[in-house]
Amino acid sequence: MGREESDLVSASQIFYPCMQCADIFFLEADICQLGEDQREVNMLAREYCVPFGRKFSPIILSHPMLAGVTGELSKTDPNAAIFMEDTETDVNTKIKKACCVPGDVTKNPCLEYVKHLVMEKDGKFLVERKEENGGNKLYEKYQDVEADFISLALHPLDLKIALSKAINAMLQPVRDHFKTGQPAVLLKQVKSYRATK
């Protein structure tokens, strides 16, 4: 947990990583896909496998932690995150309201999403604009997106529109999958759950 042995810690700080590790085995997870901040717990789970004779160790997939569209991390505000089951309208609305100060790359969720989602998946980012606004621009390096944003050659609204389009393209196969049959029933069940504080 990033603390020294001499630090005072509460019981919950000791139990929480143990419970996270136990979750991996209770769920019989083959792949643990969590944020980089959870890497230590994932590695604890892998190390547990050897002395206790577990045949398979879980595969660890760690990814950067992304701020919510509001610029903050929130596990309870459904408007602060984009979910796999969000509609195109949901995504467009959330990205439109996202924190994106012109020229500021710090705490900018739109740029983080371009860097860690769009560029990682597609290797490119297309911004479509009218000719009088600079015309279309295809970015093949994230650094170029950031440089144009800092210099104000890339306007926040153009960034948001292009980001919404890219995220919606990523989510469309998921939406198609959950339209009918058993997947539709499962989606209805998942949507019935509400996060609590």
TrEMBL record:
<dbReference type="InterPro" id="IPR014729">
    <property type="entry name" value="Rossmann-like_a/b/a_fold"/>
</dbReference>
<keyword id="KW-0648">Protein biosynthesis</keyword>
<dbReference type="InterPro" id="IPR002305">
    <property type="entry name" value="aa-tRNA-synth_Ic"/>
</dbReference>
<dbReference type="InterPro" id="IPR050489">
    <property type="entry name" value="Tyr-tRNA_synthase"/>
</dbReference>
<dbReference type="InterPro" id="IPR023617">
    <property type="entry name" value="Tyr-tRNA-ligase_arc/euk-type"/>
</dbReference>
<dbReference type="GO" id="GO:0005524">
    <property type="term" value="F:ATP binding"/>
</dbReference>
<comment type="similarity">
    <text>Belongs to the class-I aminoacyl-tRNA synthetase family.</text>
</comment>
<dbReference type="GO" id="GO:0004831">
    <property type="term" value="F:tyrosine-tRNA ligase activity"/>
</dbReference>
<dbReference type="Pfam" id="PF00579">
    <property type="entry name" value="tRNA-synt_1b"/>
</dbReference>
<dbReference type="GO" id="GO:0005737">
    <property type="term" value="C:cytoplasm"/>
</dbReference>
<keyword id="KW-0067">ATP-binding</keyword>
<keyword id="KW-0030">Aminoacyl-tRNA synthetase</keyword>
<dbReference type="GO" id="GO:0006437">
    <property type="term" value="P:tyrosyl-tRNA aminoacylation"/>
</dbReference>
<protein>
    <recommendedName>
        <fullName>tyrosine--tRNA ligase</fullName>
        <ecNumber>6.1.1.1</ecNumber>
    </recommendedName>
</protein>
<keyword id="KW-0547">Nucleotide-binding</keyword>
<keyword id="KW-0436">Ligase</keyword>
